[in-house]
Amino acid sequence: MPKKSRATGARRVSRCRVCGSKDLTLFLDLGETPLANSFLTNPDEREEWFPLQLFFCNRCALVQLSRVVDPDTLFRNYAYRSSSSGTVVAHLLELARFVHANLLGSSKDLVVEIGSNDGTFLKALKEMGVKILGVEPAKNMAHIANAQGVETLPTFFGSKEAQRIRDLKGGVKVMVANNVFAHIDDLHDFMRGVVTLLDDGGILSVEVPYLGDLNQNVEYDTVYHEHLSYFTVHPIVKLFDEFGMKLLKVVKLELHGGSIRLLAEKTTKQRPRPSFLAFEEKCGLTKLRTYESLAERVEYQKESLRRILEDARSGGEKIVGYGAPAKGNTLLNFCGIGTETLAYLIDTTPEKIGRFTPGTHIPVVETERFRKEQPPFALMLAWNYEKEIVMKEREYTGQFIVPIPSPRVLPKNA
Ligand code: TYD
Ligand code: ZN
């Protein structure tokens, strides 16, 4: 294993990000890892390692990390790209059609997306004749979007930025924030920004990975430093209430191992509460003991995956990794799986190819190599796209090892 360098750029959290309570309990310790999306250009590079620990708020039930890494460090060299997965692109097109058909009143309405990445979603809306604006702090992604004609401000979003946009463009009818909430440290300033920018009757559409699914399917690998918070509907409603946003609807989504979309309206009128809150209470998602039991299941799952990989290795068979997602890096670092087990990982993201995985320093190569070499085993690190990948690799003669929800080896293709 490469040498560790001790973290300097991380702040300790002592209060809950939503309710401010100090009554936080540690329930899952994943050890230390480097930043999951900071792929290395050189395998001998030294990197910073940060503790990866999950806490439960005994007051509002928010699950959150104990450390906040400086966002500039996190997003400086950001490799995640929406358009690298067909599933995500299809999902974003479907959302664009939904927004266009249901949430917009006139052709003058402006849609602003926060965390607009490479502009995939806004581009689809723009092609439908909708006025759009993106806000994206990862400068490389904002650049890609602008180059495709999707106007994108290369900045973080908050109350100040919201006022600036309002002065420039006027009020907004629809705001979209997909996979953004989990990244935000100051959720209150973000919400202040939302209500500054939205017109009365305006809609906020938020998608977050769902903690209910993380818990049920033991998706501990979705825990990494970019994700500061892990949400159920409970703490989000608490936050919305503070800012006069009324929750209208909760939609369950399959994306990213299970997500939810919340639609909220800026209005002073009363709106009936969705029944999702009662469902969460019934599932125990507001209780500490549920998460303590999750921590036990995480340990069990790790051992079970290590056994499967050892069996595959003991036969002298070559194993590679399919996909180099951020979550794969949590999994590899936590389970202690490195170059002794995996020859390489393949990935379709141009920004990752030719680089090395954080912590484990496994080379990332093009998918073509996997297709040519047909290694006997492939650990599907991008397990959230299992269907898409199995379909795409119908010709693969080896076997996929799927690590989540419980590690298993898929049968060979007939
Ligand atoms: P993803 O699960 O979207 O996100 P995260 O990084 O947040 O964990 O990442 C999936 C990765 O898998 C992404 O780098 C693209 C890659 N990938 C492939 O290489 N081939 C594929 O067929 C698919 C579906 C994904
Ligand atoms: Zn709280």
Low-confidence parts: none
What's the overall average pLDDT, rounded? 94
Multimeric state: single chain
Based on helices, strands and strand pairing, what is the structural class?
A: alpha/beta
Number of strands: 20
Number of domains: 3
Describe this structure in words.
This protein has 414 residues and is of the alpha/beta class. The protein is 33% helix and 24% strand. The chain contains 13 helices and 20 strands. A seven-stranded mixed sheet has the order 9-8-7-10-11-14-13, with helices on both faces. The protein has a six-stranded mixed sheet with strand order 17-16-15-18-19-20, with helices on both faces. Strands 1, 3, 4, 5 and 12 form a five-stranded mixed sheet that branches. The longest helix is centred in the last third of the chain and has 27 residues, at 288-314. The model has no long low-confidence stretch (mean pLDDT 94). Bound molecules: thymidine-5'-diphosphate and zinc ion. The site of zinc ion has 8 residues, from loops. Thymidine-5'-diphosphate is lined by residues 80, 84-85, 323-327, 347-349, 352, 382, 384-385, 388-389, 392.
